[in-house]
Specification:
2 strands; 12% strand; mainly alpha; 434 Repressor (Amino-terminal Domain); two-stranded antiparallel ribbon
Length: 69
């Protein structure tokens, strides 16, 4: 099983830039870029995911999806 990020798609749908998300979620640019651009996500703190999802007006589970290998 692989966990992939939906962050890039959600940001595009909501027309939110990386800079805007960094400011509203109060997380680093590197964190957003890593989560946004990675096809595979190894580890991310729950409170970071909560900050990102709150800033985007979505649920934490919307940020990722499971794919079978």
């Amino acid at each position: 099983m692989m966990i992939t990020s939906n962050l890039k798609c959600i940001m595009a749908q909501k027309k939110v830039s990386i800079a805007e998300l960094v400011e509203s979620a109060r997380v680093s640019h590197d964190t957003i870029a890593r989560v946004r651009l990675s096809k595979r996500i190894g580890e991310c703190k729950l409170n970071t995911l909560e900050k990102i999802s709150k800033a985007l007006g979505c649920k934490v589970r919307d940020l990722f999806e499971e794919e079978r290998d």
